[in-house]
Design a protein that fits this description.
Layout lengths: L13 E11 L9 H8 L7 E4 L5 E5 L6 H21 L2 E4 L18 H10 L1 H5 L4 E7 L3 H10 L4 H8 L4 E2 L2 E2 L6 H6 L4 E2 L7 H13 L10 E2 L1 E4 L4 E8 L4 H21 L7 H15 L4 E4 L4 E4 H11 L1 H6 L3 H13 L3 H12 L2 H13 L1
Parallel strand pairs: 8-9
Antiparallel strand pairs: 1-3, 1-4, 1-5, 2-3, 5-11, 6-7, 10-11, 12-13
Length: about 375
């Protein structure tokens, strides 16, 4: 096996992958619309790419590489408009949200592609239960060593991304009591969790080579970690976010990651000794309670509210936000923090108003178009 090569990219550049739900316009359940929709989109010039995902009721929007929030948002708006136009010609609809409120996993069909068939054969019913929808954020790195450092350093802020993006309170027709139930589906995979204790690109290569020799992995795609280096793109990939209900939120979250990366690389703080010992506790707090959760800070050994921890971080990021043109995006997130609101709160409000999951998804479709 040849060693993995980290292809350097522009430091702090950003890009995203957004998984979207394809629903019918009768009862707004998931429907197998991806093949027809992708065939139509192939004939259209887009600022990014639209790809299949593991189920035929999903598609994935891939942005290009962007220097800042404004250009990313422009790309995503253009892609959103093109997808909405084409899906409506098929009498279907698309929407955001980390889970569909009432679909049944057993009804899903795997998209016929080699990678997805491999995952289905390996993981059985877990592959269909993986019909959940996430936002993946890529941040450019100048070297593999930088990517390894950022993978560890960003782990401190994973609860922030979960709480800010949470949009999956409903699953299989019930309110789960979680703000983000989507990540429970990811947790079932044996290679989920955190990157192990490697601290250079050379050490990462040694680890990958061992896992490859055991025939546990064939590529870095087989690591379902919350954050992972992506050597072929030259990025670090944050994978914990639910798909937001609109592209503005998706772009703002990417800008938050960009500003955080800029600060971490400038200041190079050491990872507190107990960071990973507390990781799963803090992650659970974010998934279960969202903006109303708590974080146990390993540096101070104190419990702080999620909103106060995010607010303090946003304040620290001010000069770095200016450096990467992210101030507008971070101001939007500050408003969410001030009101302790995320997309899960909005979805629960729609259900309280309508008492209908069908109406909730209809509202999600409308919000995605805005």
């Amino acid at each position: 096996m040849e060693q993995l090569t980290f292809e350097p990219s522009q430091a702090f550049s950003i890009g995203v992958e957004i998984e979207l739900q394809i629903v019918n316009t009768r009862d707004y359940n998931l429907t197998r619309g991806a093949p027809d929709l992708l065939a139509r989109l192939e004939r259209i010039k887009l600022p990014g790419a639209v790809k299949p995902e593991i189920a035929q009721s999903m598609i994935e929007l891939n942005s290009g590489v962007n220097a800042n929030y404004a250009t990313l948002l422009g790309q995503l708006r253009g892609m959103r408009d093109a997808v909405v136009e084409q899906v409506e010609r098929l009498n279907l609809a698309v929407c955001g949200g980390g889970t569909h409120p009432f679909q049944q996993w057993s009804d899903q069909r795997i998209y016929p592609a080699e990678r997805f068939n491999y995952v289905s054969d390996l993981y059985g019913y877990l592959a269909k239960q993986f019909t959940v929808f996430g936002l993946h954020i890529h941040v450019g790195c100048a070297s593999g060593d930088d990517a390894i450092y950022l993978t560890h350093a960003l782990s401190r802020y994973i609860p922030h991304f979960i709480a800010l993006s949470a949009s999956s309170p409903f699953y299989q027709g019930v309110d789960t009591s979680f703000d983000s139930s989507r990540l429970n589906a990811v947790n079932a995979f044996p290679l989920s969790g955190c990157m192990p204790s490697v601290h250079t690109w050379a050490q990462f290569n040694e680890y990958f080579a061992r896992m490859y020799s055991y025939k546990i992995v064939a590529s870095t795609k087989d690591f379902y970690w919350d954050i992972r280096p992506k050597p072929e793109y030259g990025t670090v990939e944050i994978r914990v976010c639910d798909t937001p209900l609109n592209v503005e939120k998706a772009s703002a979250l990417a800008a938050y990651a960009q500003a955080l990366a800029h600060r971490l690389m400038a200041e190079r703080p050491a990872l507190p000794p107990d960071s990973y010992a507390l990781y799963n506790y803090n992650r659970f707090q974010a998934c279960r309670f969202g903006m109303n959760g708590y974080i146990l800070d390993p540096s101070t050994k104190t419990h702080v509210t999620m909103t106060s921890d995010i607010a303090a971080t946003l304040e620290q990021l001010a000069p770095h936000a200016d450096a990467v043109d992210a101030r507008t995006a971070l101001s939007q997130l500050s408003e969410d923090v001030a009101t302790a609101r995320n997309d899960t709160a909005w979805l629960r409000e729609r259900y309280r108003e309508t008492k209908s999951f069908t109406d909730v998804v209809h509202a999600q479709v409308g919000r995605w178009k805005q």
